[in-house]
Amino acid sequence: xxxxxxxxxxxxxxxxxxxxxxxxxxxxxxxxxxxxxxxxxxxxxxxxxxxxxxxxxxxxxxxxxxxxxxxxxxxxxxxxxxxxxxxxxxxxxxxxxxxxxxxxxxxxxxxxxxxxxxxxxxxxxxxxxxxxxxxxxxxxxxxxxxxxxxxxxxxxxxxxxxxxxxxxxxxxxxxxxxxxxxxxxxxxxxxxxxxxxxxxxxxxxxxxxxxxxxxxxxxxxxxxxxxxxxxxxxxxxxxxxxxxxxxxxxxxxxxxxxxxxxxxxxxxxxxxxxxxxxxxxxxxxxxxxxxxxxxxxxxxxxxxxxxxxxxxxxxxxxxxxxxxxxxxxxxxxxxxxxxxxxxxxxxxxxxxxxxxxxxxxxxxxxxxxxxxxxxxxxxxxxxxxxxxxxxxxxxxxxxxxxxxxxxxxxxxxxxxxxxxxxxxxxxxxxxxxxxxxxxxxxxxxxxxxxxxxxxxxxxxxxxxxxxxxxxxxxxxx
Length: 477
Known about the structure:
Spore Coat Polysaccharide Biosynthesis Protein SpsA, Chain A, Rossmann fold, 2 domains, seven-stranded mixed sheet
């Protein structure tokens, strides 16, 4: 999912929702087409059931310009519905929403692309309240409402935006396609801002010009849209599923469970040295607890996770992020190019690997003599269910089976024991009793809230553990 290459090798998809904008549509599209961009462009124009001739203008301009992609709604679905349709038809690396009313100046695309060119942004908002080239003075109470909604957005999402309601939101296309956008109308703006914040996108703002139109000129937004935006801010801030990436939702929930992560790390911290290879680092839930080590190499196969790790920790001198397949000897050689490690940490990875021995042999080669591998895998084959299948688990283990795998790979087994009884009970209820096929992020939040009780119940043999922790040592030469 990583956006690679310079801007000249990428494409900008300009998403234009249109509803009865025949007076401004042609000059707007001509301006969009004339903007000097450092990248290829496409203009996805969605007519949202117009009845004023807008559809004819779109069709005519599409015949004149190959970069215009017309899409037509038989009935009006609102701005949010039109934008969702445009996203489905867009093929660019970046997307920007452009209203067809000429309130925003397409020549500001160049400024919006500056943080993209510098490689620091996942989304760029065009702020009407930063100092731009010009801004029309009008509608004081609209400004007050915008600033109040922006303030609430910042409070709910821990941001410092100056203009949440701006139309100009330039977003990486891969992120835009992953977000579950549901709004029909102008509440798309708070929804998009909220879900980008929850995604963890790097949001920047740049000043843009604004020439607001009056109601006689066709302005449509009213106080009712402000009420809808207010409701949307709360609805989408606490919506459980805000994106399509199931694994990411689970990892994000686990990332917020910091007490659980510290408890987990405490189970095997004694066996981790100063030079650690973290195999399958995900989005860095444990990585952030290991940043004080002399050398930390995070190996991850998923490019999306690799990029997030790079953004978070790639600037640290003691941390190296490697994209690679853990069962590919060449990728593992690249990970160890600075020398072998005294520890390998592999949490919730081995169950995803079909050839376990190939994985473990790679760990053995990556370790110094006497170095330790720490492995956490799901426990108890009887708990295997649809949730395991959804998460891509090939199997669940027993302590005996895991110990045998380590010995077959050449490790001396130092310690094997179960971990997290409450999690095992919860897994049985969710997967076997309720027959769910995925983990709910809310379950992890509840688990985190109950951590003091979870730690007490860990000592009571009321249920099998959810996981097994095994420590293997490479024999000394």
